[in-house]
């Protein structure tokens, strides 16, 4: 019995590496999209992550079901007679385990930490410990194996219930707990970080916003874009490398949003340095957020119409 549980534990360490890698790999981009309020992009990313992890689940379960004897032989050279179906039973918990891992990382990213924490505690402590005690005493080794599967399934059910309650309380559209934030993309370009390009992009941004009916904020938004590109151009003047800016301007229901990404040195415009050159940016924007993720600066500038403050 101990040998079977040891092999199952080793297999779990392996499969958890796949599932947690999927969730962790998506986290930086999930954070970027959530910060941009690009909720449609976040949905697509989560669905893609779940599909990739789902393929891993199918492959791992198939391997365990088809080759349990060979797997036991990797850890116990002489094998364990009659133990193949224990490993097959254990593999049934891979699907809820994978879903729980991916959704824990996701809910942490979107600031739903109560759900993420409850999910972690449920599958590792609240459900698992009582189940392994009760089921092992009742069914022996079969109960010990089944306790893992049952704990993961119950944790998934708890997640669904908590997400449903949060959805009802917050008025969200679905279990992903993302608000509806329709956006109109009015400008999207990639430009070098130079002073001339900063002025050119600013003019293009203003023209795009004027055409989209957001003329009230077009000047202030264009000023913010020009300031940060020009500041980065000066910062990188002696760096000896080409820095490119991705500039995206969108009109949201409550503001105009500019997302700027560049591959330059880490540069946080929200810091108040004595030689700060972007005071204008901070002054015209209603919100400025910055982070440095996956090797790129990301600055989000949001400018509200003056009427929004009335």
Describe this structure in words.
A hairpin with a 2-residue loop joins strand 4 (287-293) and strand 5 (296-303). The model has no long low-confidence stretch (mean pLDDT 87). The chain has two domains: 2-170, no CATH class; 184-309, Histidine kinase-like ATPase, C-terminal domain (Heat Shock Protein 90). Helices cover 63% and strands 13% of the residues. The protein is elongated, with a radius of gyration of 26 Å. The chain has eleven helices and five strands, in the order ααααααααβααββαββ.
Helix/strand layout:
Blueprint (H helix, E strand, L loop, with lengths): L1 H35 L2 H28 L1 H8 L8 H8 L2 H16 L3 H14 L1 H12 L1 H30 L13 E9 L2 H17 L3 H21 L8 E8 L4 E7 L16 H6 L2 E7 L2 E8 L7
Antiparallel strand pairs: 1-2, 2-3, 3-5, 4-5
Number of helices: 11
Give the ordered list of helices and strands: HHHHHHHHEHHEEHEE
Q: Per the principal axes of the C-alpha atoms, what is the gross shape? A: elongated
Largest sheet: 5 strands, antiparallel
Structural class: alpha+beta
Rg over CA atoms: 26 Å
Taking pLDDT < 50 over at least 5 consecutive residues as the criterion, the unreliable ranges are none
Strand elements, count: 5
Give keywords:
2 domains, 5 strands, 63% helix, five-stranded antiparallel beta sheet, 310 residues, alpha+beta, Heat Shock Protein 90
Offer a concise description of the structure.
This protein has helices at 2-36, 39-66, 68-75, 84-91, 94-109, 113-126, 128-139, 141-170, 195-211, 215-235, 279-284; strands spanning 184-192, 244-251, 256-262, 287-293, 296-303.
